[in-house]
Amino acid sequence: MRKIKKYVDMIDEELTSAEEYAESYIECKANGDSQMSSRFYDMANDELNHSITIHDLAVKDIDKISAVFNAPPEMREKWEKSHQDFISRSAKIKSMLGM
Description:
By secondary structure, this protein is mostly helical. The chain has 3 helices and no strands.
């Protein structure tokens, strides 16, 4: 299931970028640079939205594949771990942007 692995990698990349931008947002906001903090806020939100879109695509594809193929337990476990990571990291990013 290379396609699902690719989705997992893409989601991770988007979340990593979103986290970096969210950290920069907080730093700029703490330094009183409202113009740059606003830009980093927007960039973090964009990356977060990209990760959500890719996650939604992965879920749709997994549902379609599951209708015709019963994935091995280790594959399902890897996806579940990735899914839980997505949920916790995206919640953390949303919390950072709520500051």
